[in-house]
Amino acid sequence: MLTAETRARDFPGLEKLTYLNTAAEGIPPTCVREALQSYWLDKLQGMKGRDAHFARLEECREIAAHLIHRLPSEVSFCSSSAEAYNLLATALNLQPQDEVIVNDLDFPSGATPWLSKGCPVKVWQSRNGALVAEDLLPLLNERTRLAQTSLVSFVNGHRLDWAVFRDAVRSGAPRAVISVDVTQALGRVVLDCYDADCLISSTHKWVLGIHGGCIVGIPQTRADQLTTRAGGWFHLLNAFEADRFERVAPKQGALSFSVGMPNFAAIYALNAALRYVNAVGVENIARHADPLVQTLQQGLLDLGVTPMAPPQRSGSGIVAVVHPQNAAIHAGLERANIHVMHSAGRLRMSLHGYNTAQDVAQFLEALRKILRS
Asked: Are 197 and 90 in the same domain?
């Protein structure tokens, strides 16, 4: 893992900052700054710079594929998870008799694109901050076309029991596509959802990239079924052919999700960030940060503050709480230069590989003082 020296070198912005908010915005390492500078220099070459742009795109596809256990041909990029999910909706081409299942712990990008498609959308309701499989089973049937979830919830950090969820859907809804948002997991926890039909992740959080990027992974076995029906050019086989005004011939599967010119600046940044995360090792990150999460959970309980999700020994970097004095607590933490998320009536703390035991201790001590006052 990071030493004090490598942490200071790679994340100089954290020197005087207690940052517990990666679930909102990751802090990029210095190699991302260097990658953006490289993009700038390549862009200055005009059209000749495109050779470097497309070479970096393929490098990024390769490392992304490695981290999500897909082939490079099964990985592509969008500008955001919202774009990816709306393109997924075009691929599914939902009909009035189809049904979609989402849950109340999912992010809006994955939960809302289906609401305007004229088909029933069923909400799998969480119970005491967790998704319980027995509550999912009655929602599944032969009409279920999509089961959408996040692996780790942005709301409270709950980590889905993937195997139980997958087996329930495969058994109760054999026609369903299983789509999983790993935005709050990729780069922080060891994934177990590689067998999803569609895997989507934003790039500006735990993988330490910047805005304007999204990873899409679709196995070749689902490529025919999950090919977008969008217009564009970059995802088309015949974009500049004589018949381009007569038919649309998209690339299949994941490659159909890159409909226009890639956001090369985000790709340069993501390529550097993913290679940094891979070099450190996601297993090492989890091994370092999971105990910090457990310390944070126990410290909150000791202060009489109960986390929204049941405590988990591993598998999530997020802890969230609801407290009557959340606004005052957040203001007090800000005065102490401790950064957490305050939104929708909750405080959310998130810990990555660059966080330390001192970060947790400073947060808990500041919280203790605020609650006492």
From this structure: yes
Question: Is 26 a member of any domain?
Answer: no
Note whether residue 97 is domain-resident.
yes
Question: pTM surpassing 0.85?
Answer: yes
**Contact at 8 Å (CB) between 161 and 133?**
yes
Q: Are residues 201 and 331 in the same domain?
A: no
Q: Are 139 and 101 in contact (CB under 8 A)?
A: yes
Burial class (CB in 10 A: 0-12, 13-18, 19+), 357: exposed
Range of the domain at 109: 32-279
- 95-126 burial, b at 16+ Cβ within 10 Å, e below that, comes to eeebbbbbbebbbebbbebbeebebebbebeb
Element (H, E) at 168: helix 162-172
What phi and psi, each to the nearest 5 degrees, are found at residue 155?
Answer: -70, -55
Same domain, 232 and 334: no
* Bridge-based pairing state of the strands 75-78 and 214-217: antiparallel
**Widest pairwise Cα distance in the chain:** 74
At 295-315, the pLDDT tens digits run: 999 999 999 999 999 877 568
pLDDT tens for each residue of 237-278: 999 999 999 999 999 999 999 999 999 999 999 999 999 999
